[in-house]
Every structure is written in structure tokens, then in C-alpha cells.
Design brief:
163 residues, single chain, 6 helices
């Protein structure tokens, strides 16, 4: 029986991401691009650490089993992050308005016509939760696969018998 660690690593990483996002929100830095990159780095580090710990505690594991553990960790992080983000958006509804205003500014910088800006913002406003959940799901799962591959590549694995 292997020592599975995806749930504790997933919970801790999701909570770290949640606290990080809260801090960025209260510091009024949540709309800065670099904060998103730091969040992705935190996610990747959490998954890679889960893979390394799993490989260390379960000697003789293959690349595939270590990768699977990293992917399960990613799934836990993703589900919890979606739930915590929905809670955060309910508690802090102004986050939606901040996001829409940042999108408006970006479209204006790109010289997008005003009617196109209005249509895009109306659609985004109506479908905000869907876009937020979809964005987290897509981004976290893709990044989690990459981090799981890295973690599985660097984690201790079973040794091939020398013949």
C-alpha cells in the first residue's frame, strides 16, 4: 500500500493560494499581472513537492505512479480553488467590477472599438462565474500536468536492474 499524499498537499496548496489571493486583494494588487504568475508558481511548487514527497516515501515507484499522484494533487487544488474563489467572489463582489474595469482598460489600450468593448463586458458580466471557474479549471489543470511531469521526472523512482 503506497503512502498517498495528494489530499494533504492539495489542501495546503489550495489554502496557500487562497490566502495569497486574499492578501493581494487587500493590498489592492490583485489586478496586477505579476500576481497571477506568482500564484501559478505557488501551484507548481505545491504539485512538485507532492511528487517529490511521494517518490521519497514510496521507494520503487514508477514515473507514471508519481505523475498520477501529482495529477491527483492538481485535481484537489483545482476543486478547492474553484470553491474558495466562488466564496471569495460572493464575499467580495467588487472583485468582479475590478476585473471588468481592468478588462476595459486593456481593450482601450488595444484600440478596441467602444461597441465591441461594451458587448464583451456585457457578456463577461453575465457569464462571470462561468468564465472564472472555466479559467481556473483550464489554467490549473494545464499547469498541474506540467508540474506533475516535472515532479515525476525529478522524484526518486525505481531503479532499473543492471543486467
Amino acid at each position: 500500500m503506497s503512502n498517498k499524499n495528494h489530499i494533504p498537499y492539495g489542501i495546503v496548496t489550495a489554502l496557500v493560494l487562497f490566502v495569497y489571493n486574499l492578501v493581494m486583494y487587500f493590498m489592492k494588487l490583485n489586478m496586477e499581472r505579476w500576481t497571477g504568475w506568482v500564484g501559478m508558481l505557488l501551484l507548481a511548487v505545491g504539485v512538485i513537492l507532492a511528487c517529490l514527497d511521494f517518490g521519497k516515501k514510496n521507494a520503487g515507484q514508477t514515473f507514471g505512479t508519481i505523475f498520477a499522484n501529482g495529477f491527483k494533487t492538481t485535481a484537489v487544488i483545482t476543486v478547492l480553488s474553484i470553491l474558495l474563489t466562488v466564496v471569495m467572489l460572493i464575499i467580495f463582489p467588487d472583485m468582479k467590477e475590478q476585473t471588468l474595469e481592468a478588462a476595459r482598460k486593456q481593450m482601450e489600450l488595444n484600440k478596441t472599438p467602444e461597441d465591441a468593448i461594451q458587448k464583451a463586458l456585457e457578456l463577461t458580466s453575465r457569464m462571470y462565474f462561468v468564465f472564472a471557474i472555466g479559467g481556473i479549471l483550464f489554467t490549473y489543470m494545464i499547469l498541474g500536468v506540467i508540474a506533475s511531469l516535472i515532479g515525476a521526472a525529478v522524484a526518486p523512482k525505481e531503479q532499473k536492474a543492471q543486467g
